[in-house]
Amino acid sequence: MRWEAVVLYALSFHPQAANVSDTGRNETRGTVTHIPRSEHSISRVNISPNALKVLYRLKDAGYQAHLVGGGVRDLLLGREPKDFDVATDAHPEEVRSLFRNCRLIGRRFRLAHVMFGREIIEVATFRALQQGGDQGADQHVDDEGRIVRDNVFGDIEGDAFRRDFSVNALYYNIADFSIMDYTGGMADIEKGVLRLIGDPDTRFREDPVRMLRAVRFATKLGFRIEAETERPIKALAPLLGDIPPARLFDEMLKLFLGGSALDNFEMLRHYNLFEQLFPLTERALGHEENHFPLMLIARGMANTDKRIEEDKPVTPAFLFALFLWQPVRERAAQLEAEGQHPAQAMQHAGSQMIAEQAAVLATPRRFSLPMRDIWMLQLRLENKGGRRSVRALSHPRFRAAYDFLLLRAAAGEVPQDLADWWTEFQETHADQIAQPASRPRPRKRRRNRSRRKPEGQTG
Ligand code: ATP
Ligand code: MG
Known about the structure:
Blueprint: H1 3-7, E1 33-35, H2 49-60, E2 65-68, H3 70-76, E3 85-88, H4 92-98, E4 102-105, E5 111-116, E6 119-125, E7 139-141, E8 147-150, H5 156-162, E9 170-173, E10 179-181, H6 185-191, E11 193-194, H7 200-206, H8 209-221, E12 224-225, H9 227-230, H10 233-236, H11 245-256, H12 261-270, H13 274-277, H14 279-286, H15 291-309, H16 316-337, H17 342-358, H18 365-382, H19 387-393, H20 398-410, H21 416-428
Parallel strand pairs: 3-6, 11-12
Antiparallel strand pairs: 1-10, 2-3, 2-9, 4-5, 5-6, 7-8, 9-10
Helix pairs in contact: 8-11, 8-12, 14-16, 15-16, 15-20, 16-17, 16-18, 17-18, 18-20, 20-21
The site of magnesium ion (MG) has 5 residues, from loops.
């Protein structure tokens, strides 16, 4: 999903944001560096054919057309881009008139999606810098300083300065295959530096999610966060509290299911950002005597990263269950001390922790339900032997719960003997183990049912 569409409600207005050209930072408005094709490594061979189709069609219709964002950055670094975004001076309606397989989305930030089967090429019109206040129907900043509408179109330079990091603001021009660099992004790519465009304090306040993005890109690319960019992060971390839980949840998935969970976890903790996402977990980790939750979580994340590298499926439910395990245990112990039956205490503790966590990160039920199963099954797995053990094997979440138990044992929370017993037990009863619960597929509904050629059409 396009970032602008999501962040608009979270942005506050700072007209000087992208204009700052403080000394020492590599950016001055009004200057652009053209890097001709012969001096950079981006080849069309590595660009998705669909993105090329979009770029060429725009160009042939007389518009400017550029590849921008992570696509350009990753190609320059020799990595495979996740997706390709296009920036143009064509207005959304003009884009639509060029492509049959195109729909316009977003009211507050209108942009075009050109669809090629599963691949979507996002085409955004260059935006002008925010002017603040009410600029009529196209641009509006509410009383709290949030931008509620941003449809004032501008030029490529304004568009570059509105982006987050310099390495994300490089434009690959399909007209001559050159790269346009307004913010010093090429030098930063070469140096391996992640630098926020403009004044970092201002830009992080505009959209605090940029702090999470800084961590994610730093670990993913192996880049160092530039000193000025990193300086305000610890102090501004609490601003994440104002971000809608659903948006934080999406960011969290990118942080923990992108293959660098452990690195992100450590860096997020370093910048006081982790406690903004998982306050209950951070509190549990803060208790000096609790070494095992840290080991449990660290091992769980290392496993997750390994599974991703091996192309095995991963679910956030398992990681979440690990994050919240210590808080759940502590609450369950408290409820038991108040007289509740252990299973009842675990049920209630699980519900309470899920509810408290959801206030920060909106966790969909398809994740919270398996989490509770994993926790409840721990009680059953702690008692070995008898018919109950055989029955546990047929629980659809047995596998996850068993993996969870192994981590608990490795972290020293339960005896290794117990884990070993289950390892052996399930080997001798392999035929009784339920297949893992099928993973829910995102439901995709086609808006335009009348389309004749649903796949691969070029409009
Ligand atoms: P990846 O897709 O690999 O995670 P990306 O850089 O492409 O990385 P996207 O979230 O796809 O990230 O966004 C595309 C581009 O939009 C970014 O490269 C950046 O130029 C701009 N952008 C995204 N989010 C923000 C933001 N919160 N503030 C400013 N610019 C942003
Ligand atoms: Mg992207």
